[in-house]
Amino acid sequence: MLQELNGAYSRLPDTFGRWELSRKFVPGEGPANAEIMVIGQAPGANEDDSGRPFVGRAGKLLDSLLKSAGILRKKAYITSVVQFFPYGNRMPTEEEIEACKPFLFNQISIIRPKLVIALGSLASATVCGIGAIKSNHGTVIKKDGVNYFCTLHPAAAVRIKSNMPIIKEDFLKLKPLAKEALSAKKEKVNKNPAS
């Protein structure tokens, strides 16, 4: 199901009137049954080159932050609101975001995570309705049985060093939520042992 969605999403540039994003699709990555989902803004130049999310300096920081919260990257599904690089390394336009949002929400409904980590203002506004992440970081919203955790984007901590202690503290706060989400997975596995 996720493969079909990715296939449709990768063809979006062909159906979009004024496309000012890279035509290279950078799909989400991770287990389709992940209990934890991480959502960023959009791929950067490194991600556009590699075709994988969060591989540059912000990605290395994200890996370290996830580890500090007890999360292995390979156990999380990592994606972006917009999965095409915005040329000029700019914020995606409202039109681009609106074109891509249905795919993100379909990813969430297919994966059905217990915890969604929204990185930065765009992801937090898109999935939680929270803007101004600088004043709302560390916020947890529970809806439809899912914990949504909003924090700064790792790129903001890479660019502005004063953000580093803030994001590190947020990920330490995240640890109990991550543990709860990962234990829900363990319970599912224990209730349905493989044959």
Explain what you see:
The chain has 195 residues and is an alpha/beta fold. The chain has a domain at 31-75 and 107-191: 3-Layer(aba) Sandwich (Uracil-DNA Glycosylase, subunit E), CATH 3.40.470.10. It has nine helices and seven strands; from the N terminus they run ααββααββαβααββαα. The chain has helices spanning 2-10, 12-15, 45-50, 57-68, 94-111, 120-128, 133-136, 154-159, 164-191, and strands at residues 21-25, 36-40, 76-80, 84-86, 115-119, 139-143, 146-151. The chain has a five-stranded mixed β-sheet, with helices on both faces. Strands 1-4 form a two-stranded antiparallel ribbon. A hairpin with a 2-residue loop joins strand 6 (139-143) and strand 7 (146-151). The longest helix has 28 residues, at 164-191. The chain is globular. The protein starts with a helix and ends with a helix.
Task: Detail the topology: elements first, then pairings.
Layout: H1 2-10, H2 12-15, E1 21-25, E2 36-40, H3 45-50, H4 57-68, E3 76-80, E4 84-86, H5 94-111, E5 115-119, H6 120-128, H7 133-136, E6 139-143, E7 146-151, H8 154-159, H9 164-191
Parallel strand pairs: 2-3, 2-5, 5-7
Antiparallel strand pairs: 1-4, 6-7
Helix pairs in contact: 1-5
Q: Roughly how many Å apart are the termini?
A: 23 Å
The structural class is alpha/beta
> What is the correct CATH architecture of the domain at 31-75 and 107-191?
3-Layer(aba) Sandwich
Overall helicity: 40-55%
CATH class of the domain at 31-75 and 107-191: Alpha Beta
How confident is the prediction overall: mean pLDDT? 88
Q: Give the radius of gyration.
A: 16 Å
Q: How many strand segments?
A: 7
